[in-house]
Amino acid sequence: MSTFHIESNKEDIADVVLMPGDPLRAKYIKEKFLTDAKEVNSVRNMLAYTGFYKGKRVTVFASGMGIPSIGIYSYELFKFYDVKKIIRIGTSGSFNKNIKLRDIVLSTGSYCKSYFPYLLGGEDISFINSSTSLNEKITKIARDGNISLKVGQTITSDVFDLYCVDIDKFRSNFEEDKYLAVEMEAFGLFYVAKLLKKEATCLMTVVDSLYDKDSLSSEDREKTLDEMITLALDATL
């Protein structure tokens, strides 16, 4: 079978999917962490691979950037490929003074001013929780492995916040200390999971901060997020 955007056969996709935004990060995960992996999608260069991690069959499927892109891929995976769980693994910014560069954030729910839920499902909502059971598992794995994990609510934005004409006006839309990080996809993923009665959550590594002049390079964003990636992979076991 195939869909409008995925060329895979149904049996090519595992029931648990890790979803980075960057296709090259999907390729990196395949090469470094998976065994017996094969490419299962290359339509629009949205690369996907299915292989094994510690004996568990898992698919790594890129989503692209923004709610519309992750909305399409997560919908098709949940609806037509019988995927049960998706863990987004991405990067984020932050304007919370308690969050530092390279902190790993687990989103318990995302706030967004978007028409996506209304257009897709006829619902006018701006906050969606992620999967409690997935979050509990990830939190336990982090605690047992002495991995520092920041857990709380996050923001999904339709724009890359650093490009805003007025960043202070952007920030005024949100309670600063309430939200740990800002990214561009989780709200869409969480809504699709809610609509189709599936499970989803989001791990993100903070790569830029309003309170830190440094930021991670594009190469760093692609290849130096191993702690977050391993945490997500262990959660599939």
Quote the distance from N terminus to C terminus.
27 Å
Radius of gyration, whole Å: 17 Å
| Number of strand segments | 11
CATH superfamily: Nucleoside phosphorylase domain
Overall tally of structural domains = 1
Strand content: 25-35%
**Largest sheet, if any?**
11 strands, mixed
- CATH architecture group name: 3-Layer(aba) Sandwich
- Which residues form runs of ≥5 with pLDDT under 50? none
Order of helices and strands: EHEEEHEEHEHEHEHEEHH
Individual helix count:
8
Helix content: 25-40%
Kindly report the CATH topology.
Rossmann fold
Any idea of the CATH class?
Alpha Beta
Tertiary shape: globular
What's the overall average pLDDT, rounded?
A: 94
User: What is the SS-derived class?
Assistant: alpha/beta
How would you summarize this macromolecular structure in one to three sentences?
It contains 8 helices and 11 strands. With 237 residues, it is of the alpha/beta class. Strands 1, 2, 3, 4, 5, 6, 7, 8, 9, 10 and 11 form an 11-stranded mixed beta sheet that branches.
Describe the structure.
There is one protein chain. The longest helix is centred in the first third of the chain and has 14 residues, at 67-80. The chain has a single domain (10-234), classed as Nucleoside phosphorylase domain (Rossmann fold, 3-Layer(aba) Sandwich), CATH 3.40.50.1580. The chain is globular. Helix 2 runs parallel beside helix 6 (186-196). It has helices at 23-33, 67-80, 116-121, 132-144, 167-171, 186-196, 218-223, 226-234, and strands at residues 16-20, 35-41, 48-53, 56-61, 85-94, 104-111, 127-129, 149-156, 182-183, 199-209, 212-215. Strands 1, 2, 3, 4, 5, 6, 7, 8, 9, 10 and 11 form an 11-stranded mixed β-sheet that branches. It is of the alpha/beta class.
